[in-house]
Specification:
Distance between the termini: 40 Å
Structural class: mainly alpha
CATH topology: Arc Repressor Mutant, subunit A
CATH superfamily: Winged helix-like DNA-binding domain superfamily/Winged helix DNA-binding domain
Strand order of the largest sheet: 1-2
Number of strands: 2
Number of helices: 6
Strand content: 5-15%
Shape: globular
Number of domains: 1
Low-confidence stretches: none
Order of helices and strands: HHHHEEHH
Largest sheet: 2 strands, antiparallel
CATH class: Mainly Alpha
Helix content: 55-70%
């Protein structure tokens, strides 16, 4: 039987919440193969086309090596395009391709469904405070 939620550490509870969110997202993206982390990268790039991988890392909270791997996979799958910048040849500017925009359009409703399903588990009068608390916890360590 599942362990009582009160007996779990905060770290474990956050992990379980993340797993639940990932599961709801996966159910809603169907057979597209899009993962929550891939969606996070696509979403970050959609808000500021031409981001560097460092900026993507900062926008998503995904660590450096995972960001590089995700961007590489999304380039290989045709969702992202990566080009060296003129200002600094060591830096890539990352842009969405038409396929990337299509995947983003698949992922956005799935992310919304995950948000809705997770918030539905929290009593309505506590939702605003819950989201505010999550935002506090989710602030990057370097701030």
């Amino acid at each position: 039987m599942a362990q009582d939620a009160e007996a779990s550490s905060l770290l474990e509870l956050l992990h379980r919440a993340s797993q639940r969110a990932d599961s709801v997202f996966a159910r809603n993206v169907g057979d597209s193969g899009l993962t929550p982390r891939q969606f996070a990268v696509l979403h970050a790039v959609s808000r500021a086309n031409g981001l560097s991988q460092t900026n993507i890392m900062a926008a998503t909270g995904i660590d450096r090596s995972s960001t590089a791997d995700l961007v590489g996979r999304l380039v290989t799958s045709g969702c992202l395009q990566r080009r060296r910048t003129r200002r600094d040849g060591r830096v890539y500017a990352v842009r969405l391709t038409p396929r990337g925009w299509q995947m983003l359009a698949i992922g956005a409703p799935a992310a919304g469904a995950a948000d809705h399903a997770l918030l539905a588990l929290v009593p309505e009068v506590q939702r605003s405070a819950f989201v505010k608390a999550l935002k506090l916890v989710a602030v990057p360590l370097d701030r």
